[in-house]
Structure formats: structure tokens, C-alpha cells
Amino acid sequence: MALKITVINGSYRRGGITDQAAEAAAAAARAGGAEVEMIRLAERRVEFCLNCRACTQEPGPARGRCVQRDDMDAILDSIEASSGLILAAPVNFFNVNALTRRFMERLVPYAWWPWGAMAPAPRVKDRKIKAVLITSSAMPSVAGRLLTGSMRALKMMAATLGAKTAGTLFVGLASMEEKPELPARDRRLAERLGRKLL
Ligand SMILES: Cc1cc2nc3c(=O)[nH]c(=O)nc-3n(C[C@H](O)[C@H](O)[C@H](O)COP(=O)(O)O)c2cc1C
């Protein structure tokens, strides 16, 4: 059976730099024989976490049940059936954009955090899956890595999903044109990331 890879694409727009980089990584994984599911958060219904903590009360390795009835369960089922993840988000106001953040907050069912406990504990630390992380910013990538919390947030997202980070790509200078084209070097790096998941 083919390896399954799920892409969580937090960009607001198709064809932007984040989308092109995520697609390049996905295409390389597909070319290597993987089955890839591209999940564009902008095209799914994902509600906000309500901080009711209903999903964190029961112990055990399985994720808790969220009270929100939206597309999140199907997305998480797809992630749990995968051996690799591509997590992609643009930088907005020095961190991942709000769409990605909203998704990230909905990962709390992967924690056991009963009332009375000061902090959450991960239900499963290592699900034996790999993640590659992609982000993009207007500022150059060196500055972006230093000054923004975007990569850190994506790493936290991977860790919450029990995935080990296998590689990262930070695409800088992404806002110079209305319809930007992913530079060839970044395309090659994205493709290399996609192959790392095989
Ligand atoms: C609301 C907003 C906030 C942004 N904030 C930042 C920022 O803090 N730092 C930065 O370098 N770029 C910032 N940018 C630029 C985006 O990071 C850049 O356009 C991104 O690569 C867009 O990704 P996309 O092509 O996938 O849409 C911002 C853009 C918008 C629209």
C-alpha cells in the first residue's frame, strides 16, 4: 500500500508562495509513490476551540472528542492515517496566520488535561510520523527565522500531533509581486522536503 501524506495548508490563497511550496513538496512525494491529500484550511470548516476542555478529560492514547461538529474530525483522521505531514503557513504579524492558529488550537484533544491538573500532558509523544514545515514571509528568510515565531509554531503543531520534524523551509521575500512565483531554489528545497517523507 502507498505511503499516505497529509498536507495542512494554512494559506488563505491558492497559487501564493506558501501554496506553491506546499504543492512542490506534495508533487515530489507523489512522484515517489506516496498518496498525498492536500487539505486547504481556507476551504474547510474549522471552528474555534471553545476552551471547554471536554476533549481533555478522559485519559488514554486516543484523541479526545471535541464538542464542535465540523470538518476537524475528518482532517485529524486523515493525519492519523498518514506516515508523513507537510505543515505550511504564511507569516502574518510575526507568527503563523490566524487560520493556521485556529487549527492549531483545535489540536488540544491530543492532550490529557483533567480539571485540577496545572498543565496538559501529551497522550502520545511519538506517533512515528515525520513532518516537514514550510513558511513564507515578506522579510528575507534569515530575518524571518530570527524574528518571527512562525517556524516555532509549526514545530509545536508537529510535536502536538506526535510527529518528528524532518526538515524546514522558510521562503523569504514572498510579497514583492501580486502573483509571485516560487524561486527555483526554494522549489528544489521544497521538493527535497517532500522526498524526505518517503
Ligand atoms: C495581514 C498580513 C500580515 C503580514 N505580516 C507579516 C509579517 O509580520 N512579517 C512578514 O515578513 N511578512 C508579513 N506578511 C507578508 C506575508 O507573510 C507574505 O505575503 C506571505 O508569504 C503570503 O503567503 P501566501 O503567498 O501563501 O499568501 C503579512 C501579510 C499580511 C497580508
Tell me the name of the CATH homologous superfamily.
Flavodoxin domain
Instruction: Give the termini separation.
Output: 13 Å
H-E order: EHEHEEHEEEHHEH
What count of structural domains?
A: 1
Oligomer: single chain
Question: Number of helical runs?
Answer: 6
> Taking Cα atoms only, what radius of gyration do you get, to the nearest Å?
16 Å
Q: What percent of residues are in strands?
A: 15-25%
- Overall residue-averaged pLDDT value: 97
Question: Shape from CA axes?
Answer: globular
Give the total of beta strands.
8
Main beta sheet: 6 strands, mixed
Give the structural class.
alpha/beta
Q: Estimate percent helicity.
A: 25-40%
CATH class: Alpha Beta
Which ranges are low-confidence, i.e. pLDDT below 50, for 5 or more consecutive residues? none
CATH architecture annotation? 3-Layer(aba) Sandwich
How are the SSEs placed, and which strands pair?
Elements: E1 4-9, H1 17-31, E2 35-40, H2 72-80, E3 84-92, E4 95-96, H3 98-105, E5 111-112, E6 121-122, E7 129-136, H4 141-147, H5 150-160, E8 163-171, H6 184-196
Parallel strand pairs: 1-2, 1-3, 3-7, 7-8
Antiparallel strand pairs: 3-4, 5-6
Helix pairs in contact: 1-6
Features:
single chain, 198 residues, alpha/beta, Rossmann fold, six-stranded mixed β-sheet, two-stranded antiparallel ribbon, 8 strands, 32% helix, globular, binds flavin mononucleotide
